[in-house]
Amino acid sequence: GLARQLDRPIVLVGMMGVGKSSVGKRLAGLLGCAFVDADEEIEHSAQMTIPEIFEDFGEDYFRDGERRVIARLISESTEEPGCNIVIATGGGAFCNPETRALILDKAITVWLDSEIDTLVERTARKDNRPLLKEGDPREILTRLRNERAPLYAQAPIHVVSGSGPHVQTINKVLQGIS
Ligand code: S3P
Questions:
Q1: Which residues pair with 35 in a beta bridge?
Q2: Class of domain 2-177
Q3: Which residues does 44 contact at the CB level (< 8 Å), separation at least 6?
Q4: Where along this sequence does the record place binding of Mg(2+) (predicted)?
Q5: Phi, psi values for residue 126, rounded to 5°
Q6: pTM to 2 decimals?
Q7: Ligand 1 centroid to residue 91 C-alpha, Å
Q8: Does the beta carbon of 140 sit less than 6 angstroms from any atom of ligand 1?
Q9: Where are the domains of the chain?
Q10: 138 C-alpha vs ligand 1 centroid, how far in Å?
């Protein structure tokens, strides 16, 4: 049941715009866990925004910081018993082999996936994703989703997030982890 598996952090992976942060926040609320957004944590420790990190230091540097931040969040949370954290990762985090291996080893990993239309609509609400500035967002999201799907599919739990309210997605995640 639920209690048996919640001895590990829950890590949400999947494309930009799928709703990892919104779903994660509410899921943590329901489970009585803390919630951490890895992107926000990176911005906090670098004292820079993600677009600034990409601009000044490049994507490889960002990926390295991302790996370190996720490793720290996971190790802090596993020091104490019980489910004490839900972590939302940036869309590319799980594509880094080291970050992926760490997450798969230490966490309950949930892949959230949506149709391209939903990803396009949700990412258009914010102007904070450097990878979507390199061309047409729909084309970029389609390409990245195709490239990344086989990696995301290594997560043991798959949840399809529709275009509707997140409550449905949260219920599916709860079923998945129980
Ligand atoms: C990225 C996703 C972003 C952020 C960065 C790169 C990606 O996070 O980490 O812009 O490679 O998919 P979200 O998935 O929270 O948008």
A1: 86
A2: alpha beta
A3: none
A4: 21
A5: -130, 150
A6: 0.95
A7: 4
A8: no
A9: 2-177
A10: 15
